[in-house]
Amino acid sequence: MIPIAKPLLGADEVRAVSDTIMSGIIAEGPRVADFEQAFADYIGVEHAIAVNSGTAALHAALLAHGIGDGDEVITTPFTFIATSNSVLFTGAKPIFADIEDDTFNINPDAIMEKITSKTKAILPVHLYGHPAEMNAIMEVAEDHNLAVIEDACQAHGAVYDGEKVGSFGTGTFSFYPTKNMTTSEGGMITTNDQNIADRARMIRSHGSRQRYVHEMLGYNFRMTDISASIGLVQLNKIGEFTRQRQSNAEYLSRGLKRVDRVTVPIVRHNCEHVFHQYTIRAQDRDGLVETLSENGVGTGVYYPIPTHKQPFYQELGYNDSLPESEGAGDEVVSLPVHPSVTQDELDHIIGVIKGTE
Ligand SMILES: *Cc1c(COP(=O)(O)O)cnc(C)c1O
Question: What fold characterizes domain 238-354?
């Protein structure tokens, strides 16, 4: 079976972890600081704050912006559940705006319609590694004095109008093993705002900037030096990983763009897509998933049920109708695009979808 995701870990990562363990410092220490600096440089921001998951990055970023009880945060329902759950953690209410049918990202016009006097922030997701429409989103945010927290958990290194995502508002990243780079579990917050960075650092560690002095309510969101040492190695490889993903995606699109049953992903002219997922639309999606599986091709459906339709959100009383998100949930399927997929495997995937294999 060609897997849908595969972390690329080898001798370099083993050596880095082993060195860290032998150093005697395994919790947050010098390697976390080095990883933060290197990641800030990579994204092109002044501050990066390492945490122990992408979910923690979202949670801490929202809290750092002072989001809480009574506030509303406008976000997309077509994403992993962590995006809007992190809003719920703060006591605020996620408000869902529908998506664009081609990029699957939040539609800026739909955001406008959802703004109320309670709105405090916009939380776009750069889904599958394609940037959200940041010019329009930043404009709406400025006009209404809203914070922007970017869920870039799938978009390490993706570029919008010449700038990396995670540098427009406050960025949040995940380093879960299936993401474009990994630290095992892990996450990062990126910002150019000194005040947000200071608050995020305190929230990460029990509201404390000086040992045993607690200025606010915080959590234990700290990353370990073991994780950071893997991250430092992976960060050196992310450029090559991304190029390989992009070249695999281009190859798949060349093979699939004239196939009737499917629509290949688009890349906006001012964007660089990092293809965390290569996601097509297919009319008979479930049939295609079955055919691919029978022919040894692993696939993923991200995400079959938009957040507002999840049982837990229905219980909370959400009853929106968001037709683009619901339609996408019925039609999307992601194909293997990660750096270890070979050319023969790409040909096989294309052949199976065309019905010639
Ligand atoms: C992976 C992911 C997260 C959560 O990251 P974790 O590290 O798993 O907590 C949040 N949002 C999106 C869009 C993701 O893909």
Answer: Aspartate Aminotransferase, domain 1 (3.90.1150)
